[in-house]
Structure formats: structure tokens, C-alpha cells
Amino acid sequence: MKSYSSTYREGLGGRGIVLFLLFLLSLFNFYTLGITGFAFVCLIPAGLILLALALKHQEIMFWAFFAINYFVMGLQRYGYIPIPITLVTLGPQFLLLLSFIIIPRQTKASMATPMLLGIIIWTLYLCTQLFNETCGLPIDVFAWMQNMNFFAFYFILCYIIIFKMINSPDKVMRFFRLWAYFSLVAAYWAFRQKTFGWDDAENAWLMSGASRTHIIGGSIRYFSFFSDAANFGCHTGAAAAVFFIIALTSKLRKDKILFWTAGALSTYSFFNSGTRSGLMCFMAAIVLYVFLSKSVKLTSFVVTTSVIFIFFLACTKIGNGNMQIRRMRTAFDSNDASKNVRDMNKEALKKHLQDAPFGMGINIDENNIPPFNKFKVVYETSNDSTYVFFWQRTGIIGVYVFAAMNILILLGGCFITLTKLQNKACKGIAAAMCCGFLGLQAGGYANHILLQYPNLILFYGGMVIVYILPAIEGDFELYEQREFEKEEERRRLKLEKKKQSRV
Predict the structure, then answer these.
(1) What span, in angstroms and rounded, lies between the C-alpha atoms of 388 and 447?
(2) For residues 233 and 229, what is the distance between their CA atoms, to the nearest angstrom?
(3) How does pLDDT run across 113-140, given as a tens digit for each residue?
(4) CA angle 63, 262, 272 (to 5 degrees)
(5) Which of 48, 235, 260, 394 is found 20 to 30 A from 496 (Cα to Cα)?
């Protein structure tokens, strides 16, 4: 007779097949019908498996998420992500957060920072939005929770995850090196679009309505694999400044080469984007670095170069045959049509939002605002920028709170750069991120890009690193010295090999 255990093991094969088929059915159900009770229950085992992987391989999951965050918009455009993007990006963050709760990770720096204070204040303000009755519509808790994901929880998760994962000099440099490598890929993709034209997926995306803002009067705005040209231009404008500053202050030759190259190609990219705000992002970042560097020589060089550059764009017609240069010149044209349209939209919003200091609210389904409701006009008016977007939904008070959060983050980072750090490379990284963060805020004032992928994890995550640097500065000096000695040893061996080959 067979034992009970052997009979049980033989039955496992059939049960496993049934469970696997149920899992596939739940995925199909999830893809076609959304989150249903059946799909949710059947996906629980998959969630538990992913959580187990997160517990065992926190590092791998973090860097995989970091890479996906950069390429997610392109992957969606090419049809490689058939499920909502938020599940692809928010899911790994949530699993990592759970893994930190189950298996706590030690941090060398205190998590009580001005940045955390700013995020908490912003989150608490958004919590009060649950009771916003401006539009006179029933409160939709589900809509409020969805918006809290985008407007607050991403900031909180980004802060906690970066603080827990980036706790050593080699991880800090891996963060910036990967960013630089990804930027090289983005620059190549824009070059491909410009040289060889759009592929089928990009053509389909343009024909679906994006051509209105990307092919303007003979001027073509390239977007690489980003969400749009504005996001691409603002991101690369701010990133170019980050890379140039790190290259300028790094001690390691390999890093200098990488970051100078990434900075140059990112500059090429924001010109290709045809986004005037990209130029403003870059200039705002460089101006801040003049103050943070406290260098008379650098200040003179930057001021002289900036004056020549602005004179070239604003007062000459040199290079007008290039459509990207023509597009950048419109940044200095007070009669530019798109700028005037944005000003008109702001005036219209100002008129309608006078009676709504807390905005329309983030606790309603905006699509359900009745046509006769005066705030329907507010919802339908193009916002054009992240700050105007929050003005519409959280009111003028919300804009002030959001701006205060960003100012607090930036001032805290600048204070650390100027007073807490002594190592040149650490100061360079901190200054680079403060400058890039300011550059991105300048872009967010003109375009709706602050919450777009991949900006939040890179720029806000980069500012978290600034707050971590004072605690690991001593380790960073040892790391830098060790890497420098390795470079010197490789150079010595290379010279010896060269001398031997001549004998």
C-alpha cells in the first residue's frame, strides 16, 4: 500500500498545474477587466513570491526598479508593458518597503531631515483635501487614494527607499554612473530619430495626437523614449548640469571621462528636444553652482560664457538654418505665440480659482464634473506646468505648500554643501544635485514634468543622497583613494607593458 505522504506528493503535480492555470487566468482577467476580486485573490501567491524575492534580493530588486523607472515610458510605447505603469513602478517600491519592515536595514545617517519635514507637510496638506467640497460633488475616497499615490506616496517611498539602499560610496557612484549610462542611451535614441526618422511605434504615437506638439511649423521636437519632448528636454537640461559638475570635481579619470561625455551628449539632447525650458533648466542649474562653488575664476568664466551664449541666441541670427537653434531663440521672444497662450490660460485659471483657495480637490473623479459646474472650465484648461497643475487641484494654498516643500529640500541641500562637507568629490556631488534639482524646478514651472518618469526617483532621490553624504564622507574618502590607487596601478602596468613591447 502506498503511504499517505507518497500519495500526497503524487497529487502535487496536478494541483500545481491547476494553480498555474488559475494564475494565468487571473493575469488575463486582470489585463482585460482590471482589478477584480477573482484576479486579486489569484495574484496573492505571485505577490508572496515577489515579496520573498525582495527579502532575499533587495539590492537586485532596487537596481532593477531603478533601470525600469528610466525606460518605462519607452517600454510602454513599444507595447512591452500591457499593465498600468503604476503597478510596474509602485509595486517594487511597495515590496521593498515591506521587506525593510520585515528585515530592517541600518542607516548611517539620521532620516530626520528638512526634506522629510517638507514631504510630511505636503502629505498632511493633501490629507486635508479629502474633505474638499469646492466642486459640490460627492467625496470619492478611491479617487483621493489614487491621487495620493501620485502626489505624495511616491515622494515618501522614494525618500525611504533611497535612504535605506544608498548607504555606501560605491552605491552613490553606481547611482550616478547608471544615470549617466542611461543618458547616453537616451541621447543615441534621439540621434536615431533625427537621423533615420521615426519607427512604427513612434509614428503611431505621433499620429494619435502627439504630432500637434512635436511637429510645429516645420520644427521637429525629438523625445527619445521619454513621455514627450518637454520631459526629455527638461530632464536632459538639468542632467547635463549634474554630469558636468560631477566631472569637474571628480578625482577619478574614468568618472571624468564618463560624466564629461554624458554632460556633452545631454546638452546635445536638450537642443534636439526643441524645448526652450531645457535651456532654462541648464542655465538655472549653472547659476546656482556659481554661488555654491565660491570660486572667483569659475564665476568669471560662467558669467562671461553665459553672456556670450545669451547674446548669441537673443541678439544674432547665426545658426538660424538649424531648427533647434531657431526654437531655442524663441525663449527670448516676448511675442512668442505659445508663451502668450500659456499666459492667457493662467489668467483664465486665476479668474475661476479666486473662489477656490483649496482648488478643485483631489478627492473627486474629475471626469464627472458636470458641464454646468464652473470648475469644469478649470479642469479643461490646459495646465502646461506642474505648478499650474497643482494650482488647479490643490489651489493657491496647495501651490505654496508644494513650493515650500521644494524650497526646504533645496535650502537644506545647499546648507549641507556649503557647511557640512569637506571632500571635493562629495561637495561636487551635493552641489551637482542641488543645481540639477533647481534646474528641474525651473522646468516644472514651465512644463508638467516634475512627476513624470524618470524625474522623481533621479532628482528627488538624488537630493536624498545629498542628506546622506555627511554620514559617509569618511568612507567616501577611503573609497576614492582606493579607486585612485587602482587607476594608478593600471596606468603603471600599461606603461610597463608598452615599454616592454618596444624592446
Answers:
(1) 9
(2) 6
(3) 999 999 999 999 999 999 888 888 888 8
(4) 110
(5) 260
